[in-house]
Each structure stands twice: as structure tokens, then as C-alpha cells.
Write a structure and sequence with these properties.
6 helices; 0% strand
Amino acid sequence: ARAKKRKHAAERFFPLPRHQQRTATMDIVSEFRKSYGAQPKVLRLIDVFTFFSFITGILQLVYVAMVGTFPFNSFLGGFLSCVGNFILLVGLRMRINHQNKEDLKVSSETAFAEFLFCQVILHFTVIAFIG
């Protein structure tokens, strides 16, 4: 009876055999790569920069966890710069994406100008925070 319960639980969590799971995962990955490759280069460049900002923030958190927070204002300034940059890039990506054009009704040039203005404000704030 106990072996049947284990088998039943395994079937519940893994409904497909292992070779079919790999095939399904490979299909998902290949479909993602194909559809992502159809995105404009500008959006892919924004995605790379967003990923870089995210990784930089994670590395700063790891550094602070390992070394300490002696220049705390410097850590906060750098980390908030990464977080703010990430948020501004996600907003820019949403506004430039052609699938959102009819919902947002903003031209790409206006979205980029607003992004640059917010970046200047963000970095002046970070510089003033650091001292």
C-alpha cells in the first residue's frame, strides 16, 4: 500500500515520463528562442541592459553580505542606482514595445526623452546621496 502511495505521488508531480519531459522542455526553449528572436533589436538591447543592471545589483548585495556595509551611503547609492535604472528600463521597454502602442499612445522618441530625463534626475539624486 505504501509503494502505491509513492507511485501515485510521483505520478502526480511528474505526469510525463522523463524523456517526454526533456522533449517538452526543449520545445518550450526552442519556441521561446524563436519568438524572442523576432523581437526588434532595440528591445533586445534594452533587455540586455536591464539584465546587466539586475546582475550588478545582485553583485552589490553579495559584496555587502560578504564584506560589510562600512561606506553605507555608497552601498545605498549604488544599489538604488541599479534598482532605479532597472525600473526605468522596464518602463522604457514597455513604452517602446509595438504591442503596447495603442494602449500607451506615446511615440518612441517621447518615451526615450522621458527616460533620459528620469536617468539624469536619478543620477543627480544618487550623487547627492553619496555626498
